[in-house]
Amino acid sequence: MASNFNLNQKKTMKNSFGYLDAKSKSIIWDAYANHFGGEEIMEEGFNVNTGYVYLALDNVTIASAFGQPVEYIVFDFEEGQEMFLYSINELNEYLNR
2, exposed or middle or buried, with CB in 10 Å at 0-12, 13-18, 19+? Predict the structure, then answer.
């Protein structure tokens, strides 16, 4: 599934967040704590073009936009595109294929 989530797009951490952005931030940190605690965070950011709040880890990006459930994003080098996975089980299946 191709997307507009591109870490190379302009990204900055905001000094303040609206309600939905703050909700997204909470959602991604909850996912990090529950499934990735202790893993190195490469980058934390907000994509002003897409509305995604994200945590970029070594092999997966945890993201949420507009207070929606977490999405796990991995880059498939064979396909040359980003893959959006919508549950931790789906992510684990994808990574263990």
Answer: exposed
